[in-house]
Amino acid sequence: MTDAAVEPVLGPREHVGVRLSVMMFLQHSVRGVWLPYLASFLIASHAQGGLGFTGGQAGWIIAVSAMGAVLAPLVAGQVADRYLNAEKALAILILITAIASFALWQTTTFSAYLIVSILYSIAYMPTHSLSNSLSFAHLDHPERQFPIVRAFGSLGWIISSSLFTLIWLRTNSPVTNTARVADALFVSGVIALAYAIYCLVALPATPPRPDHAHPLAFARAFVLLKHRGFLILMLAALPVSMIHQAYTMRISPYLRDEVHMKLSWIGPAMGIGQWLEIGFLFILGALIRRLGYRGVLLVGCLAQFIRFTIYATTHSIPLIVVALALHGLCYAAFFAAGFVYVERVAPVDIRHSAQTVFGIVILGLGPVAAGLFNQYFDRFATPTGAQQYHQFWLAQAAVGLTAAILIWIAFPKKFDDEPPRLQDAKEFEVGE
Predict the structure, then answer these.
(1) pLDDT tens digits for 360-389?
(2) Which of 358, 364, 363, 316 is CA-nearest to residue 341?
(3) Angle, helix 110-138 to helix 16-32, in steps of 10 degrees
(4) CATH code of the domain occupying 9-205+216-427
(5) pLDDT digits 0-9 by tens, 130-147
(6) Which phi and psi (to 5°) does residue 386 adopt?
(7) Is residue 159 within 8 Å of 285, Cβ to Cβ?
(8) Residues of 49-65 as b/e, b for ≥16 C-beta within 10 angstroms?
(9) Is the N end or the C end of the chain the one with fewer CB atoms within 10 Å?
């Protein structure tokens, strides 16, 4: 296939905001259709319609598969910065993701599931940073426009997860409903195939920049750690992403077993957080201008502390709804704000790789830590195997509070309003 054959149908600036929004919708639908409730399927016994994995094995699926994602973003960032158009790299990785999704759909043993999950993560994890970087490359006012574009990712997550559960998991048999969760992986593969095609025919061309001096873009991106704001963001992002990922693996069984929520309603219930996420993303630019990056990141960490404290101390449905809603603030005020901050401080020629360094922490190292964290808390299970969620949620809350203290004490104040763009290698030596 020639390059001309895969040029976008639309011009580079034609309806670019709409095209990027559709990209985000598909990007997060791919994973949103299965992630909220897959844990319930993995750890349910065979008699209950699941695969019968232990909590520790489910943790290893997170941890070991994420280890592959630690290196994959480096490769993807380097390719997008230097050798291959970002939209073409995105299409290739998403196509591999589709193949891995179809394979997982048919996989039933732990060892095979673990291996395919690693392949899935190597392909899919870098696409988060690539889609973000591609958006930043074509938005005229990223700080104001990116949160709105990213909000369509949350919309994709809500629609895919809610429709699948409400349509496909509504039989009268809990065993059948649990077994049918596996079909979400097939749906994910179909969405990924459509997304790969969309990348080639609709996304604006985003060529690499091979003319810049440094031969290894990601190496310069790591040098950004000399920038105190970037360093503190990375240090806080590791524990925050750990508890975020651990929450994802535990919340579905918790809502089913402790709150006694029907499996078909778990997707829509978790969608409450995504709806609030959309709202917070729409006002994120205003929040950053009002509170500064330090204030917004602090709010995101404190929201983590509050929601996990609620889970640890009550089963009151109204308060559980509040905790689910706080997910939106947790994501928008920390992760989305973090992506925007990285975009503001990174030199032009390493924006892709700077975003992937952030992606390594929140999509690679954080999930690795979450897998080990989940496995540790298996020791609190009862003799019958039931999970003791009280200790788990309290530990999550403590980590969120620690991250908030780190941001409050160490994140620089004077860059809140207008963090400097680092333009060349010499400026990496400039202190705060």
Answers:
(1) 888 888 888 888 887 777 766 665 556 678
(2) 358
(3) 170
(4) 1.20.1250.20
(5) 888 889 889 988 878 888
(6) -70, 140
(7) no
(8) bbbebebbbbbbbbbbb
(9) N
Residue 172 is predicted with a pLDDT of 87
C-alpha 222/C-alpha 243 separation (Å) is 24
CA distance 62 to 65: 6
173-221 pLDDT, tens digit per residue, is: 989 999 999 999 999 999 999 999 999 999 999 887 654 444 455 666 7
User: Any residues with CB less than 8 A from the CB of 130 and at least 6 apart, and which?
Assistant: 76, 77, 80, 86, 89, 90, 93, 352, 356
Q: How far is CA 144 from CA 2, 313, 336, 428, in A?
A: 36, 37, 12, 26
- Note whether 43 and 56 are within 8 A (CB): no
Q: Where are the domains of the chain?
A: 9-205+216-427
Greatest Cα-to-Cα distance within the chain, rounded to the nearest angstrom: 66
Nearest 10 degrees: CA dihedral of 319, 321, 322, 325? 160
CB 340 within 8 A of CB 288: yes
pLDDT at 359 over 70: yes
Q: Which amino acid is at 153?
A: G
Q: DSSP assignment, residue 106? A: T
pLDDT of residue 334: 96
b/e 334-344 (16+ beta carbons within 10 angstroms → b): bbbbbbbbbbb
The C-alpha angle 357, 323, 315, rounded to 5 degrees, equals 135
CA distance 67 to 215: 25
Considering only CA atoms, which of 91, 181, 179 is closest in space to residue 131? 91
Helix axes 284-313, 228-257, angle to 10 degrees: 40
Q: How far apart are CA 45 and CA 321, in angstroms?
A: 28
Tokens read off for 152? 């369509």
3-state SS, 230-275, equals HHHHHHHHHHHHHHHHHHHHHHHHHHHHCCCCCHHHHHHHHHHHHH
Q: From the centroid of its chain, how far is CA 348?
A: 24
**CA pair distance 432, 423, nearest whole angstrom:** 15
Among candidate residues 196, 27, 198, 3, the one with its CA nearest the CA of residue 85: 3
* DSSP secondary structure letters along 189-203: HHHHHHHHHHHHHHS
